[in-house]
Structure of Intradiol ring-cleavage dioxygenases domain-containing protein:
Amino acid sequence: MYIPIFLTFIIGLALSSTAHPGEHVERDESNIFQKRAYHSHVVRGYGACANSPALALVTARAGLRRRNIVEKQRQELAARRGQQVLSPNLDSNPKHISDLPGPLRKSHRKTDPNIGPNTPEDELFGDNGICVLNPEGMVGPFYVTGELIRSDITEDEPGVPMTIDAQFIDVETCNPVEGIWWDIWSCNSTGVYSGVSSWENDDMDDTSILDATFLRGIQQTDAEGVARFQTIFPGHYQHRATHLHVIAHVGNVTRFPNDTIAGGTVAHIGQLFWDQDLIYEVERTYPYSSNTVPITPNSRDRLFLDEVEGTTSDPVFNYVKLGDDIRDGIFAWISVAVNLSASYDPSHDWRLTEHSGVSDLGGDSPV
């Protein structure tokens, strides 16, 4: 079966930014030009994947896997409520059309009134595109090294439950990449990051946040190139659209008995986003609604726009809702093409040690 692959891109941004109150984002035209040149290079190298029978099989298996996960989660939800199992066509798929860049003109919700139990998996749970992460992306000021290997990063954080599923494809071979360590982090429902004590991140006097680890974690991809997390939908903070930070660690990575990693290289850094309609729907629920900071939409987030303007970039998760209420949960997925020969050393100001969180603000410390 032929499955077309519409190649799209996500690039991390090497722009100057803080991230909370007082954030300053500069548009660096030379960096933007370099990233778009990188896109063109990857397009040429990855073009053969569109007709790759092997990748078609990978995509079909991914669709089946995602559908099975969603059905299982809906069964669990129905069992808790004592109801019948929810079907994929419960959700409608409204389209929001505008004159904005491509990813802002379409919905990434993958359900439709015409979709039912017999809809092919690759149609319902396939991908709008494969994202290509630039080797030098914006890590942001709240990257913490030494985080834990774990699939559930929620801890006790309240919010809309969400499963994130990512599949990594080698940009040069079109095959799934086994063994990548996928490192992710996001703010909580009210816009606060764990592991960082800073005026940018809420209250500098609250040093207990240094020891917190919520909504941070690392997973290794399996033979299908898949890593998955259980988390909550992120909240928002000043001057930034709702987003998720991601890093791909490759190479000679060592896993320690305390479930942390070190070594290897960082091949890719980036940020992933969600549809604006979904963000607004989540933000109407508590505790998101208690955040008085104005929401910055994707259409006004300079980091988002620099990724998509003038390119075919689409750094937005596909998703389905698990029930008729957004608070029932979300299943979100994306496929990411990676260039394993890329290498980048992100700086960090914070790290988690065996005993506590530690600040490295006294100097730069490459990973």
Observations:
- Confidence is low (pLDDT under 50) at residues 1-26, 86-99, 112-121, 362-367.
- The CA atoms of residues 151 and 229 lie 5 Å apart.
